[in-house]
Amino acid sequence: MKRAARLNAILDLLADAGEVTVEELVERFGASPATTRRDLDSLAEQRLLTRTHGGAVAQAVAYELPIRYKSHLRTHQKERIAQAAASLVAPGMVVGLSGGTTTTAIAAALAARDDLSGGGGLTVVTNAVNIAAQLATRPDIKVVVTGGVIHSRTYELVGPFVEQLLRGVRLDMAFIGVNGMDAASGATTQDEREAAVNRMMAERSRRAVVVTDSSKLGLSAFAAVGGVELFPSVITDAEADAASVEALRDAGYEVLLAD
User: How would DSSP label each residue in 90-157?
Assistant: First the structure.
């Protein structure tokens, strides 16, 4: 397992169990005890966990909201998508993250990176309070929260206050989670308020990317976010149905398969 994936897996274990031991991690991931201790030390330096004798415990502030928000559906696919998305981000960028389980995984992948401190850090603009809490303890990531009215089901901030802030910023890249991604309908969500925020975040970005696991391809939800003119790129997992991928590519989308 690559180091970045291993660090994310450690954080997932902490989110579930609250504490881990070096012995448990060695058995689970197959890395040496010395490598495992270095992994924990690196995450502790990023304030993503607290080291203990023989292991680590979760940072309460960093994990209280993500635990409640966390979805256990298709987590491996979302982690692969998150790694692919995070690889497109260079230090110094301003990145927009909408709410959703896949974008939450992207936030974790960005937080686990150890190349930000010497490269100008990173600025993340988000309307998801769980993502803001997840990144708040990472000193190399500046977190900008949009404001707005909180949607209790998704932890996303919606409404005119969000749009007012987004009008005043420019993003290098935006990753937008969706409930459906179809060649004809484009990106869609279940909630029209979330769709409006997602659309504006994409419009304020130099490059907007839909991130979705393959179970949502070929589906259309209630509220339209935008088509290929707004989202030239889609990142999904390698288990995507070939016909759905071909349809998206025929419609003009660049489809990246994360494996």
Answer: PTT-EEEE-SSHHHHHHHHHHHT-SSSTTTT-EEEEESBHHHHHHHTT-TTEEEEE---EEETTTTEE
How many other CB atoms are there within 10 angstroms of residue 141's CB atom?
A: 20
Percent of the chain scoring above 70 in pLDDT = 93
CA diameter of the chain: 55
- Residue 34 tokens, joined: 């010395």
Per-domain boundaries in the chain: 3-58, 67-258
Specify the CATH number of the domain 3-58: 1.10.10.10
Q: Note the pLDDT of residue 66.
A: 42
Query: What pLDDT score does 68 carry?
Result: 42
pLDDT score of 114: 83
CB distance 250 to 183 below 8 Å = yes
Neighbours of 45 (CB within 10 A): 13
Segment 46-58 mean pLDDT: 85
DSSP states of 63-100 as a string?
HHHHHHH---TTHHHHHHHHHHHHTTPPTT-EEEE-SS
Architecture in CATH for domain 67-258: 3-Layer(aba) Sandwich (3.40)
Name the amino acid, one letter, at 128.
A
The model carries a pTM of: 0.74
What's the one-letter identity of residue 217?
L
Q: Identify residue 233 by its one-letter amino acid code.
A: S
Q: Please check the confidence at residue 235 and state whether its pLDDT lies above 90.
A: yes
